[in-house]
Design brief:
The chain is of the alpha/beta class. It has six helices and eight strands. A hairpin with a 4-residue loop joins β4 and β5. It is elongated, with a radius of gyration of 39 Å. The model has no long low-confidence stretch (mean pLDDT about 85).
């Protein structure tokens, strides 16, 4: 028992305590990161459940879901709403840098002015362009004229600098940014078009359906937890090697292994510092001169 205790005494050394602290911090960080990914997975599942429920429900009037100046909450994401009004094509806003299968294009957002006085921002779909920087609304297909009835998915406003509107174009849709740019009151959020009646002369490419997959969060969580377990296992293995003397034996064998590798490569192990040939010749000459001088001194004394 005393031998076992003495063999583990290295664990209380400063080096091993610091090593243990680093490993514990790493394992704890992996635990937190794994839990974070797991919570994202649960949140994604809950959001997908809401979307599945909302998109299967029949359309409801837009006034029952959206209000001016209010960004729609998560609970109404992808709710199908209906609205009737007149498109104001002169207020069209283009969403730049939208690609489909590698082709450049824009999303076309047109306000539908309703009887309430508020306009509903309708993302009518995607239009292919010659380049990513296309910003001319007059070159996109026109919406239907006259009184139009639309249905669409409710979407939340974007945020940040990408939602800024410049020259009737933006990189993300935000009713809070588009309203002052077009000068008419609008409902909060926007809708992605599903149907419009009457139909336009030229249809745009409709929006993709929502992604209802769970994403990579489950595997990311397992990956972080595996890293944490691996860190603890690695510490335990190194401590076991140190306690059993295997680590010391491996360190002792390293010079021999290095010498064997040198021999295998055709080299020879070092045998200490070697004197260059010039130094050896100088030393031999000095020894001869010293011997001759001693011989002359002996002769003079006689």
């Amino acid at each position: 028992m005393p031998d076992r205790a003495s063999s583990l005494r290295f664990l209380v050394s400063r080096r091993w305590l610091l090593f243990l602290l680093v490993v514990l911090l790493l394992a704890y960080a992996c635990l937190l990161l794994g839990r974070w990914q797991w919570h994202r997975l649960e949140s994604r599942k809950a959001g997908n459940a809401i979307i599945r429920t909302n998109e299967k429900a029949p359309p409801v009037p837009v006034d029952q879901v959206l209000s001016r100046g209010v960004n729609p909450p998560d609970a109404v994401q992808f709710t199908v709403v209906s609205a009737t009004g007149t498109y104001d094509a002169s207020k069209t806003v283009l969403v730049r840098y939208q690609t489909r299968n590698g082709a450049p294009g824009v999303d076309v957002v047109v306000p539908l002015v309703t009887a309430s006085g508020n306009a509903l921002l309708v993302d009518r779909g995607w239009f292919q362009t010659a380049n990513q920087g296309f910003t001319d609304p007059s070159q996109v297909p026109a919406p239907p004229g006259g009184r139009v009835t639309v249905t669409g998915w409710v979407r939340q406003d974007a945020s940040g600098s990408s939602a800024e509107v410049v020259n009737a174009s933006t990189r993300a849709i935000s009713s809070a940014q588009i309203e002052p740019a077009i000068g008419i009151p609008v409902y909060g959020g926007f809708v992605q078009l599903l149907t419009e009646s009457p139909a336009p002369q030229t249809r745009l490419t409709p929006a993709d359906p929502p992604d209802l997959s769970n994403g990579p969060h489950f595997f990311y969580a397992l990956q972080w937890w595996f890293f944490g377990i691996l860190a603890l296992f690695g510490f335990g293995y190194l401590a076991w090697e140190e306690a059993t003397g295997r680590a010391e034996l491996r360190r002792a064998q390293q010079p021999a292994k290095k010498e064997a590798k040198m021999r295998a490569r055709g080299g020879a192990p070092s045998q200490g510092p070697q004197q260059p040939p010039v130094d050896r010749e100088h030393r031999a000459g000095d020894e001869r001169r010293s011997g001759a001088e001693q011989e002359r001194r002996g002769t003079a004394e006689l």
